[in-house]
Each structure stands twice: as C-alpha cells, then as structure tokens.
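Progress note, sequence design subtask.
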C-alpha cells in the first residue's frame, strides 16, 4: 500500500517505519514510463522507495511554464502504487519553503553556467537547492535521477561529492517512445504536427552518434535539425562524459535543446568516438 503524505511531519512518521535503506525518486509529477523506470530500478534494490512530487517554483524562470506545468496527482499516485512505492511525498510550497523562498541556496559553479544554465539562469541553483532539501527531508540513502536531464544528474553527483553528502546518486538511462522521442512530462504540450517535428531531436542524436569522429557527429546532427523547420535549436553540443571538452576518442555525450512551438525540449545520448582517424580535429566548443 502506497501512503500519500503532504507535510514534512507526516513524511517523518512514515520514514520512521522504514525497515532499512531509503531510496528516493524525485519528480515534478505528471508521471510517465521514464519516472516509472526510475521507481523500478529503485525497487530492485530497496524495499522502501519514496517518490517526491513537487513542482519547484525556484527552478522556473520568468516566462517559463510553472503555472501551466501538468498536475495529475491521482494518476501519479496510481502509478506509484503499481510500482510498489512505499511513500509519495507531495508537499505544498509552504511545506518545502516555510517562511518563503530560502535565503541560503546552492551555487552550482561553472558546470551550472553552460548549456542549460546559459539558457535558464538560476535554474540549476533552484534545482540543487530543492534536491538538497528533499534529500534531507526524505533521509535518502540512495537517490535515482534520469540521464534524460544529463546536466542535472552531473550537477547532483558533483554536489554530493563536493559537499560530502551521505547519499549514493544513481543515474538511469533515458526511456523513449518507440519512435525515439524521449519521454517528458512536457510532451503533452505538443500538437500532432509539433510532435512529428520533435522527432528530429532524437533522430539527430541517434544518427550523429552513429558517426565515428567528432566533426561528423556534429555535422550529421546539425543537418538533420536544420532540415526540420518546426525546430529552433538552442544548442547542440558534443562534450566529454562529465560535460567537459569532448575527448578525441572514447566516450562522449551529444546533447541538444530546442524549442518546438513554445515547448522547450532537451535530449542527449552517449557517443563512442573511434580512435585514430581524425584525432587532430578539435570539436568546436558549444557548437
Ligand atoms: P521531472 O519530473 O521531469 O523533474 O523528472 C523527474 C526525474 O525523472 C528526473 O530524474 C528525470 O531525469 C527523470 N526522467 C524524466 N524523463 C525521463 C525519461 N524519459 N527517462 C528516464 N528518466 C526520466
């Protein structure tokens, strides 16, 4: 039986009953198969899984979709029950931020200024602040985050390491629709035509990642995105696995952000750059 709690006091009472390790999956609700995969992976290891559902105002900028972000608590609770989740913590704004917005917040550092951080000032500070608060409130021993939000995952790992947080951070590969579209709560904003256009993101990443060298990866991905008039690219970047400069060979990451209509979508895939051939080609930073 999944227990739904809204206040930190009720959450604490449930956590007192945890038989062992506490695993946490943090979400903003409007749960889909991607979220459910995080719950499944968490349940494989831990008997006691807590899912948090909180649309965090701190990580939305002016003009972003905080107000219209989908809120579907009944369906979300059913999904959590089906996945064997012990507790759903769905706090109100005042339960997370009693006394208003916090004065002391997280500073994501340089890694928070590139890519998403360049387009969404303040986003990662707001995100890390709520993640740290929720890690404390849920007493998480292990917390699961999706690779779908690759920079977010990298920053949370970095925060845990840099600040000695006593929690294990685990990443889970992106869940996609059959046609490649990465699942996202924001996909429901897309009209049928926009959804078709949005497929260019995953196609560009997939076909780009099939190339052997950095230059071709970016060229192929750029071309596919440029051919889709419904997509306005914010960035397409080839980086290292830690979001630093791309290596000449070996494991890299290809990331994209774009607007389709007024909906901003992000996606990313791993890339294996082949040794040899074009080792002298330096990938264009942020290109
Ligand atoms: P959100 O509700 O969008 O804040 O996402 C909550 C968690 O689910 C984050 O760790 C996301 O990275 C993860 N997530 C969202 N979409 C997917 C997906 N398609 N596949 C895997 N994880 C996802």
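Output:
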């Amino acid at each position: 039986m999944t227990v739904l709690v809204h206040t930190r006091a009720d959450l604490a009472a449930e956590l007192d009953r945890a038989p062992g390790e506490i695993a946490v999956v943090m979400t903003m609700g409007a749960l889909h198969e991607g979220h459910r995969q995080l719950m499944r992976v968490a349940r494989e290891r831990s008997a006691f899984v807590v899912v948090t559902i909180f649309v965090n105002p701190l990580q939305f900028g002016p003009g972003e979709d905080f107000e219209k972000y989908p809120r579907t608590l009944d369906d979300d609770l059913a999904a959590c029950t089906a996945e064997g989740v012990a507790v759903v913590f769905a706090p109100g704004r005042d339960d997370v931020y009693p006394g208003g917005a916090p004065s002391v917040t997280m500073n994501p550092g340089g890694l928070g200024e590139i890519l998403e951080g360049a387009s969404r000032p303040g986003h990662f500070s707001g995100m890390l602040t709520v993640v740290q608060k929720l890690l404390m409130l849920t007493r998480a021993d292990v917390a699961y985050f999706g690779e779908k939000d690759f920079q977010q995952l990298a920053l949370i790992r970095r925060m845990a390491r840099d600040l000695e947080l006593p929690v294990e951070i685990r990443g889970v590969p992106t869940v996609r629709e059959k046609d490649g579209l990465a699942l996202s709560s924001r996909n429901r904003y897309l009209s049928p035509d926009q959804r078709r256009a949005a497929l260019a993101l995953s196609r560009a990443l997939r076909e780009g990642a099939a190339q052997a060298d950095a230059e071709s990866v970016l060229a192929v991905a750029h071309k596919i995105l440029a051919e889709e008039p419904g997509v306005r690219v914010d960035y397409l970047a080839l980086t290292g696995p830690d979001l630093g400069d791309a290596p000449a060979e070996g494991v890299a990451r290809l990331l994209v952000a774009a607007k389709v209509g007024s909906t901003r979508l992000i996606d990313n895939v791993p890339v294996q750059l082949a040794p040899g051939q074009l080792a002298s080609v330096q990938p264009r930073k942020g290109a």
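The first helix runs from residue 8 to 15. Work on this subtask will continue into the next period as scheduled.
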